[in-house]
Amino acid sequence: MDPIQANNYSIYFNDDSFVYLENLLKAETYSKIFVLVDENTNENCLPYFLSNLPTEIDIEIIEIEVGEENKNIYTCLDLWHTLIELGADRKSIMLNLGGGVITDLGGFVACTFKRGIDFINIPTTLLSMVDASIGGKNGVDLGNLKNQIGVIKEPKSVVVITKFLETLPSNEMRSGLAEMLKHGLIYDKKYWDKLKNLNDLNTDDLDVLIKESIEIKNKIVSEDLTENGIRKSLNFGHTLGHAIESYFLESEDKKALLHGEAIAVGMILESFLSLKLNLISNEEYAEIKYIITDVFEKVDFNDVDIQKIIDLLIFDKKNEFGKVQFALLNKIGEIKIDQTVDNSLILLAFEDYLQN
């Protein structure tokens, strides 16, 4: 597959990724390579990656614990200290080998260490391939509030090696699929239509669909890196989805949801809001709800859950002047940004979601 050109970097695929990395490491004068992994990618992805990375530069492996709960400033502090102890300097490079937590957090650590060192994102989950690793957003959570601390700085490059998907459990694959479905809903109805027939796809089809999803996100981000306009469209499903994800993460009596599982609920809820604001038709809403619920199990909410989720909306980082901002569908394949919605409609959206 040909590389995708972003604003100031390129996205490489499969075998071309290793060719690119080998040439880069020969051409640049890096003092050390630091590979950031979690427990899963250390075991399942790192051996294959290193065996295909010929270089004479010293390599240090840094491992963190798995999970969104570790995407915080305390982990960053540990990593900054570790980099110092291992002799990192401004000519070091960090390779972030993992899912969205690794690329988000690793990018932030690299951007802030000695005022910035080069970093490359090497996503190993479907979610990080089509979303987290693309677009230059790097950051961490503040308590249970998603992505409150961070910077926008693009990586040196992104390399997508779809072989890593062979190591993923089915729920992680579905989590990434949520973002692919979102890209179709907000930008390209033809792409959405392709994703409606998932049972008929083979591995080669998936590689092509992954690249198309990345192309959609890259086109949006390239127009609006700092999220003042069209990039807000990528927030569809995320205003309520992030609040749901945060609530389930902090609740002792709830099982934490994967990002894509929460976003899937958010997309159904926000599609309902789009319907009630006369932006999409009943037929479009029924199709969206059917397709997403066919892939993702329904999540249960009680009245207390719903009220606490609504209370969390005010902390969404996209809000402006104290108002909760939604990106809603204008029809399948189009988006309308900066929409405000009454809480009464949000309650109706949950009520509709919970119906059989």
List the helices and strands and how they pair.
Elements: E1 4-5, E2 10-13, H1 15-27, E3 33-38, H2 39-44, H3 46-51, E4 59-64, H4 73-85, E5 93-98, H5 100-112, E6 118-123, H6 126-132, E7 137-142, E8 145-152, E9 157-160, H7 170-187, H8 189-195, H9 203-223, H10 238-250, H11 259-276, H12 282-295, H13 303-312, E10 326-331, E11 334-339, H14 343-354
Parallel strand pairs: 2-9, 3-4, 3-5, 5-6, 6-9
Antiparallel strand pairs: 1-2, 7-8, 10-11
Helix pairs in contact: 5-6, 6-7, 6-9, 7-8, 7-9, 7-11, 10-11, 10-13, 11-12, 11-14
Question: How would you describe this protein?
Answer:
Helix content is 48%, strand content 17%. The chain has 14 helices and 11 strands. It has helices at 15-27, 39-44, 46-51, 73-85, 100-112, 126-132, 170-187, 189-195, 203-223, 238-250, 259-276, 282-295, 303-312, 343-354; strands at residues 4-5, 10-13, 33-38, 59-64, 93-98, 118-123, 137-142, 145-152, 157-160, 326-331, 334-339. Helix 11 packs across helix 14 (343-354). A hairpin with a 2-residue loop joins strand 10 and strand 11. The strands form 3 sheets. Strands 1-2-9-6-5-3-4 form a 7-stranded mixed sheet, sandwiched between helices. Strands 7-8 form a two-stranded antiparallel sheet. It has a two-stranded antiparallel sheet with strand order 10-11. The protein has 2 domains: 4-168, 3-Layer(aba) Sandwich (Rossmann fold); 171-354, Dehydroquinate synthase-like, alpha domain (Up-down Bundle), CATH 1.20.1090.10. It has 356 residues and is of the alpha/beta class. Catalyzes the conversion of 3-deoxy-D-arabino-heptulosonate 7-phosphate (DAHP) to dehydroquinate (DHQ).
